[in-house]
Predict the 3D structure of the following.
Amino acid sequence: MKITILGAGAYATALATVLTENKNEVTMWSAFQDEIDYLKKNNESPRLKGIKLENINYETDLKKSMKNKDLLIIATPTGAVDEVTNKMKQYYTNTPICAISKGIEQETCLFVCDIIKNNLNTDKMSVMSGPSFAIDVANKVPVGLTLASNCEETSNIIYKAFSNNHFRLEKTNDIIGTEMCGAIKNVIAIASGILNGMGYPESTTSMLLTESLNDIKGLIKDLNGNGNTAYTFAGIGDLLLTATSAKSRNFSFGNLIGKGASKEEINDYIKTTTIEGLYTLNSIKQILEDKKIQMPIINIIDDIVYSGKNPQTLIDYMIKRP
């Protein structure tokens, strides 16, 4: 198949290695010429040092990168999805789309699939989400992800493009639940990092994750999704990975807060690191307010992160909650 990945970050690059391994013809697009020049010259990403890239075409021309393709993969940062898909409008011909960008747009509180559908007017949409660090995917370790779509044709194309003996896809039609899991796990990872920074052990983290999983299940149902999506790769799988690993930027950010790091140290980390959960926190809080849904732990995390409330309030809530 002929496939274009829109975006050239670490995870996009890792997915490109899976697609080329499966004998697909892959093009990677970036709006940044210096990014493309680096990839062409070094045959590796600066974000995935040591992973050699082979049999990949590189493009900055959006029209060329989209022409005569069997699948388009949206892998830009979530904040850039609206801009990129708006630019795609004039060249888009209803090609199946897979979104791997996770999160919720801050201004509109729209999920990534909603943004893409609105801008490109297509039902050939899917979202792929699950517990898999880019370096692990690139190193061909066994991973499992959730593939959510309401279009069987799109789902089958993506399944065929990616599936092999180390990359497993689990199909569902619950796009809402899958996207919410991919977004909210970053917020819970901040809370988990806070506990770790305060010196609490895995037993306390397990309490947080168990309670959070129940909250996520209820939230998905309130948003008219399938609550059982909380138990998939996109749900508990991604939550466990992101909320228990020092590789997670969200966990590391929370760890700084829990340790009582100075404002200067925390701000320096924010300036130099993309912390998805920090931005998603605002959007989820707004969704909860708009939908009149109760999820107190989100307000507690927000108070700790943005208002400087004592992290001990997180423990107090977990112990005393009904």
